[in-house]
Amino acid sequence: MAATAQDLMLPHRHRYTVDDYHRMADTGILSPDARVELIDGQVMEMPPIRPPHASMVTELQNRLIRTAGDSAVVRVQNPVRLGPHDEPEPDLAVVTPPATQYRTRHPGPADILLLIEVADSSLPLDRDVKLRRYAACGITEAWLVDANAGTVLRCREQGAEGYRHCDAIQGQCSVPIPGLSGCELDLRHLY
């Protein structure tokens, strides 16, 4: 079917690629201290990190490192490359070792065992945008830690429209870390 004059006049959203995003940073279009992420081809401004968020990320980082040991690499607020239009910076990423393989590239979906987002003021963005993208990009499991409600939302079985199963976990248990046989993250006394 041929495009009509009306079709040609409609604005179309331009989706940036990861390469475009890097060029914007290299040329100064994005300042070095900008808190932004590339999600589904859009440059998204992220809210400032507040003390409850920072504290929770640090606590989870310490617990994950102790639990996983050398079986995984725990990355904190570093980019993951999920596809040509996605380079978010999850609060925590548990990825396959060794860490040296990420000197020349960011981890991709095949490297990622688990992504964790900690939300206080960013709950709608993390829940409605980032988790949906993680699922669409093939991340098998992602957790959303709600720093205000004291819950962990464990999302599994990814699909194009999001995760098929999301279970709210109150923080008084241990949860298996995907891809690490016998490793469970103790969530007791997290809040």
UniProtKB/TrEMBL annotation:
It comes from the Bacteria. Residues 19-187 form the Putative restriction endonuclease domain. SUPFAM superfamilies: Restriction endonuclease-like. This is Putative restriction endonuclease domain-containing protein. The lineage of its organism: Bacteria, Pseudomonadati, Pseudomonadota, Gammaproteobacteria, Chromatiales.
